[in-house]
Automatic annotation (TrEMBL):
InterPro entries assigned to the protein according to its UniProt record, in alphabetical order: DUF1559, N_methyl_site, Pilin-like
Name of protein: Type II secretion system protein G
DUF1559 domain ranges (all copies): 38-319
Ranges annotated as spanning the membrane: 12-37
Keywords: Membrane, Transmembrane, Transmembrane helix
Pfam family, one: SBP_bac_10
Superkingdom to which the source organism belongs: Bacteria
Length: 339
């Protein structure tokens, strides 16, 4: 049998136009698929973030069962210890026993050594772009305790000298869930544990100002900038071992994700936090610690929160300021609806 003759006009491949059409179709399909993939990844990160908060809530309630009270955010008293955070105190209840054993809560934590510079996965939101150490000294956190509406703590005038250092002995707690020397129990949450904030997201490496007497206004639009004497460009919420509010807490002066410009008169940042003076520091003797430390999230349009009953839920950044503040008080007597 003779071989079949092939027409000289027959072609075995794509023309250039056909190839370009195929490439265009693939590009369109990819452009349609990528947003869906990104949304799925963000949804997974959001779920993990919510689970982290639930783990913190479970740890707090386990701590309560053992110690008959929730842990303090900070502790004032004799000696160098006390500044250890709530986060450090609940380590044994989040599978952090070995790390907890490296800490001596009777002594000051030391920068650059465990546990201060150790990454704790439960304390970091997977969407936080600053999941990185601060030099070799500290590791940040993405979650802060509820320090109340504004006045975190009011120091007493009683002090004691230990060696070359002066320590303030005590003071009055804020209207929030935690604070210096707090010893709150379930009975103290008369607003109801399901109506009181426990934790909320914060952003690591937030700029902040401290050690100034000026306080924030009721809303960002009422004051062009927050001012204080000492500007810190990017160290807020970078020390999960430190119990001071600008490192491991938040307040409800402003709604979640509010833009709050800050300055010390020389340096400034587009948005940051404010603390009038630092808990336990001698310039604060007899003075209140007033703080505008805003809850912030990388999840668009909201922040994830933990309530005192251990449940985690999202809160819109458009929540009413009054409702947001009411949620932060443990015994304000406010009547809350859906939020």
């Amino acid at each position: 049998m003779l071989p079949k003759r092939v027409s000289p006009n027959r072609r075995n491949g794509f023309t250039l136009i056909e190839l370009l059409v195929v490439i265009a179709i693939i590009a369109i399909l990819i452009s349609l698929l990528l947003p869906a993939v990104q949304q799925a990844r963000e949804a997974a990160r959001r779920t993990q973030c919510r689970n982290n908060l639930k783990q913190i809530g479970l740890a707090l309630h386990n701590y309560l069962d053992v110690n008959r009270a929730f842990p303090p955010a900070f502790s004032l008293g004799n000696g160098p210890g006390g500044q250890w955070s709530l986060h450090a105190r609940i380590l044994p209840y989040i599978d952090g026993v070995n790390l907890y054993q490296t800490a001596d809560l009777e002594q000051s934590y030391t920068a650059g050594t465990a546990p201060a510079n150790v990454r704790v996965a439960t304390y970091l939101c997977p969407s936080d772009i600053n999941d990185k150490p601060r030099g070799s000294d500290y590791y940040p956190t993405s979650y802060g305790y509820n320090g109340g509406t504004y006045t975190v703590f009011t120091h007493s005038s009683d002090t004691v000298v230990v060696g070359s250092d002066t320590y303030i002995l005590g003071g009055q707690l804020s209207d929030g869930s935690f604070g210096p020397n707090s010893n709150t129990k379930i009975r103290d949450f008369t607003d109801g544990t399901s109506n009181t904030l426990c934790f909320a997201e914060v952003k690591a490496f937030t700029p902040y100002i401290r050690d100034g007497l000026d306080g924030p206004a009721a809303a960002p639009t009422d004051l062009s900038v927050l001012t204080a004497g000492d500007f810190k460009a990017d160290t807020g919420h970078t020390e999960w071992v430190d119990g001071r509010v600008h490192q491991t807490g938040f307040t409800t002066v402003f709604t979640p994700n509010a833009i709050t410009p800050i300055t010390d008169g020389t340096d400034s940042a587009e948005s940051g936090d404010f603390t009038s003076c630092r808990e336990g520091k001698t310039p604060c003797v007899g003075e209140p610690v007033r703080a505008a430390v805003t809850a912030r999230s990388y999840h668009t349009g909201m922040v994830l929160t933990l309530l005192m009953d251990g449940s985690a839920r999202s809160v819109s950044e458009n929540i009413s300021l009054f409702t947001w503040r009411d949620l932060s008080t443990r015994a304000g007597g406010e009547i809350l609806g859906e939020f």
